C-alpha cells in the first residue's frame, strides 16, 4: 500500500504531506512520489513497531519503536486512516506469521504478551470504530439506504480487521500458554460445577454410611430416604429383639 499521509515535522513547519510506502513489512516515507527511487527519508520495520491510534482525532495514528523512533502521521480522513491501520496491522501480523515459531519463542514472557495485548486493544478499538461507521451510514438517512458501492468499503475494512483481531488473539493465547508455569497450565480433566456438586454429594453419602442419620440434603430426597430407611430397619430390629425377649 502507498499514498499520502501528513507527517508531523516540527513546530515551525507543522504537518507536511509525505509519500508513504508499505512493502515487505517495512513502511518508508519520501518527500513526494517522484522521490521513491532516490532513497527514503525514514523507515520503520513493522515487526518491531507499535501502532497507536489517537484517542480523539479519527485521522491520526502513531508508529512507535520504543526508545528509537516515533512517527506522528495523519490521514486525509477517517476512512483513509482505517485503510492504513488495517494494512499496517495485516503487514505486522504477516511478518510475524512468516517467522511465527521463532518470534513467539523469542517474545514469550511478560513483555511479549504485553505487546500482543496492546495490539489486541488496538484492533478492538478499530472494530468498534468501524461498526459505528457502518451504523452511522445506515442511520444518517433513513429514506435512502446507502448503495452497495458505499457500503462495500466499510464492510471490507471490518472483515479485514476481524481477521487480524482473531489472528492476534490466537497469538496472545499462545504467548499466555508459554508464559504459564506447568502448575498453572490447564489440565486435560476439567471439573465442571455440576461434577463438583455430584462429587460433594457422593462424599457426604459415604460419610453418612459410617454416621447414619447425620447428613441429609434439603434439595434431594435420595440421601434422606436412605437414612430414613436405615432408621426404620434399626427400629424393626429393636422391636423384634424386644418381642423375642418377652417369649
Summarize this structure as a short list of keywords or feature phrases.
6 helices, 7 strands, Pleckstrin homology domain containing, family A (phosphoinositide binding specific) member 3, 7-stranded antiparallel sheet, 247 residues, phosphoprotein, PH-like_dom_sf, golgi apparatus, alpha+beta, globular, PH-domain like
Detailed description of the structure:
It is found in: Golgi apparatus, trans-Golgi network membrane; Membrane. This is Pleckstrin homology domain containing, family A (phosphoinositide binding specific) member 3. The protein has six helices and seven strands, in the order βββββββαααααα. The protein is α+β, with helices and mostly antiparallel strands and 247 residues long. It has two domains: 2-179, Pleckstrin-homology domain (PH domain)/Phosphotyrosine-binding domain (PTB) (PH-domain like); 193-246, no CATH class. Strands 4-3-2-1-7-6-5 form a seven-stranded antiparallel β-sheet. A hairpin with a 3-residue loop joins strand 1 (2-10) and strand 2 (14-23). Helix 1 runs parallel beside helix 4. The longest helix is centred in the middle third of the chain and has 32 residues, at 148-179. Residues 98-106 and 213-227 have low confidence and may be disordered.
Amino acid at each position: 500500500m502507498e499514498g499520502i499521509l501528513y507527517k508531523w515535522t516540527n513546530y515551525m513547519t507543522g504537518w507536511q504531506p509525505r509519500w508513504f510506502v508499505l512493502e515487505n513489512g517495512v513502511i518508508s516515507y519520501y518527500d513526494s512520489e517522484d522521490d521513491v527511487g532516490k532513497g527514503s527519508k525514514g523507515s520503520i520495520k513493522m515487526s518491531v513497531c507499535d501502532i497507536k491510534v489517537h484517542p480523539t482525532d479519527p485521522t491520526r495514528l502513531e508508529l512507535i519503536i520504543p526508545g528509537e523512533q516515533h512517527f506522528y502521521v495523519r490521514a486525509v480522513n477517517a476512512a483513509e486512516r482505517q485503510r492504513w491501520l488495517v494494512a499496517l496491522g495485516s503487514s505486522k501480523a504477516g511478518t510475524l506469521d512468516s517467522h511465527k515459531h521463532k518470534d513467539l519463542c523469542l517474545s514469550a514472557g511478560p513483555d511479549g504478551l504485553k505487546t500482543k495485548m496492546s495490539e489486541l486493544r488496538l484492533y478492538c478499538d478499530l472494530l468498534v470504530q468501524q461498526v459505528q461507521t457502518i451504523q452511522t451510514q445506515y442511520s444518517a438517512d433513513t429514506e435512502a439506504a446507502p448503495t452497495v458501492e458505499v457500503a462495500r468499503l466499510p464492510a471490507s475494512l471490518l472483515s479485514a480487521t476481524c481477521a487480524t483481531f482473531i489472528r492476534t488473539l490466537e497469538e496472545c493465547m499462545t504467548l499466555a500458554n508459554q508464559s504459564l508455569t506447568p502448575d498453572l497450565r490447564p489440565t486435560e480433566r476439567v471439573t465442571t460445577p455440576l461434577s463438583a456438586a455430584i462429587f460433594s454429594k457422593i462424599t457426604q453419602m459415604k460419610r453418612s454410611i459410617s454416621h447414619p442419620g447425620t447428613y441429609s440434603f434439603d434439595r434431594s430426597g435420595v440421601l434422606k430416604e436412605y437414612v430414613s430407611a436405615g432408621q426404620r430397619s434399626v427400629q424393626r430390629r429393636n422391636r423384634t429383639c424386644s418381642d423375642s425377649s418377652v417369649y
